[in-house]
Q: What sequence folds into this?
């Protein structure tokens, strides 16, 4: 447990009106505050219904008081929770009374995330579990909430600790050999270091794959609909969302600004952004601004759906009328973000036996070479929409089966795992050298361990802690 810190207090429930509101106090000794507000000594871990009193003994509210003595509390300190009626005025009155009663022991308002930060500093949670608390609160889908709960229970942390234990064991063998150079043994052969390292790398790859899935659940995907005017971008937004969100007309240039909607596919939040049609020959200043905003959205996209008109596409020999758009999209997109060509309006295409519009033909076409893959759809009739949904997830690596054990992960977790993977790869290269440099081998293992430890907070800078916890809500 860390050195004693001054007690803190905050309203722990969301702003606004509700049936119940909670004021939380945490610190080294909150029993006097409890007696001042409740008029009696509270029995630990028992709910007591009573009046909450002001300094003159008048009743502020009636509610339930809970007292959790250290170390058996959320923060590891003494914790007092007052559950009253959830009106903003009565909550402020209770908080003010707590601060008044605790003035003599230095009670102050809590900073954002300070309760959970104290739980981390007092070894009640590791850093990955602490972050999962905020992720559970902010979860936008049921799948994300379940994954955050698993992370909060320690599933992610357990996987990291198992990796660290294996790295430590291998480091112990390497460094013991370095301490006794007179032992003329081939260390890598005698201890099966290569085999142990291969197991660690395989396990890390599995954890990284799960973390990527968890990151998708947490962050979702930014999907930008791009293309020339009147190719059906707004119709596709409406079809994906299942509601008439965007105005659809046959007039080119109807969409002047970005229209954003979040949908779910298999629990993954997809932030769909409908944009102004891409063309260079407009004299409309408003439309020009909308087109620039389209390119700005493309520059931040996880994936771009490039829509083309099916009739024009076939007439032009399976090439968009403006085939330079693909090149421009590729030049603006962030590295690694894919482009999916969506051939829309197949219901309006000529039906004279054209194989591309045969009802027996799959709507998904896998392209070869540098061209993006294609999905053939009708946003108006719904043909191919489900295939498009599935293809979107495949493009970003989502695996729909076997995700019951997925834990939520953040970008910093992915970065740490990738860095650890890189150092383990370097260790494997050292192991394959003819002249084995065990000191370099050991150093790569140490660096990999440091990156893994940063996930759970066993090796973490104060600056990073400040960044993480200040993003929490104040009562947490």
A:
């Amino acid at each position: 447990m860390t050195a004693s810190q001054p007690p803190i207090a905050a309203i722990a429930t969301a702003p606004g009106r509700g049936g119940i509101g909670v004021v939380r106090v945490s610190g080294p000794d909150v029993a006097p505050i409890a007696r001042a507000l409740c008029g009696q000594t509270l029995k630990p871990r028992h709910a007591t219904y009573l009046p909450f009193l002001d300094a003159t003994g008048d009743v502020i509210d009636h509610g339930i008081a809970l007292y959790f003595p250290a170390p058996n509390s959320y923060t590891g300190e003494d914790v007092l929770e007052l559950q009253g009626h959830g009106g903003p005025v009565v909550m402020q009155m209770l908080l003010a009374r707590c601060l008044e009663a605790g003035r003599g022991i230095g009670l102050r308002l809590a900073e954002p995330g300070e309760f959970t930060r104290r739980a981390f500093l007092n070894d009640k949670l590791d850093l990955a579990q602490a972050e999962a608390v905020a992720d559970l609160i902010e979860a936008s889908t049921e799948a994300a909430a379940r994954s955050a709960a698993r992370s909060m229970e320690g599933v992610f942390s357990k996987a990291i600790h198992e990796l660290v234990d294996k790295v430590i064991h291998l480091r112990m063998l390497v460094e013991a050999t370095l301490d006794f150079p007179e032992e003329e043994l081939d260390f890598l052969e005698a201890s099966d270091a290569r085999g142990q390292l291969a197991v660690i790398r395989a396990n890390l790859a599995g954890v990284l794959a799960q973390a990527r899935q968890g990151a998708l659940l947490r962050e979702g995907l930014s999907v930008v609909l791009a293309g020339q005017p009147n190719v059906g971008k707004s119709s596709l937004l409406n079809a994906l969302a299942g509601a008439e969100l965007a105005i659809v007309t046959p007039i080119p240039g109807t969409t002047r600004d970005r229209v954003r909607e979040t949908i779910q596919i298999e629990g993954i939040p997809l932030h769909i952004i409908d944009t102004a049609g891409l063309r260079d020959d407009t004299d409309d200043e408003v439309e020009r601004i909308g087109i620039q905003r389209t390119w700005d959205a493309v520059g931040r996209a996880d994936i771009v759906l490039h829509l083309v008109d099916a009739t024009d596409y076939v007439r032009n020999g399976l090439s968009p009328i403006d085939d330079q758009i693909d090149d421009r999209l590729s030049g603006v997109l962030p590295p690694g973000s894919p482009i999916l060509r969506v051939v829309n309006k197949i219901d309006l295409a000529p039906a004279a036996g054209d194989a591309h519009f045969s009802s027996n033909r799959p709507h998904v076409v896998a392209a070869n070479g540098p061209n993006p893959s294609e999905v053939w759809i009708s946003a108006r009739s719904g043909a191919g929409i489900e295939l498009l949904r599935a293809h979107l997830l495949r493009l970003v690596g989502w695996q729909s089966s076997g995700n019951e054990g997925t834990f939520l992960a953040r970008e910093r977790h992915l970065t740490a795992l990738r860095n650890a993977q890189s150092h383990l790869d370097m260790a494997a290269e050292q192991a394959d050298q003819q002249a084995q440099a065990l000191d370099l081998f050991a150093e790569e293992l140490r660096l990999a361990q440091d990156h893994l430890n940063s996930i759970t907070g066993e090796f973490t800078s104060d600056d990073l802690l400040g960044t993480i916890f200040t993003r929490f809500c104040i009562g947490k």
Remarks:
- Residues 193-219 form the longest helix (27 residues).
- The chain is about 45% helix and 15% strand.
- Confidence is low (pLDDT under 50) at residues 246-257, 351-372.
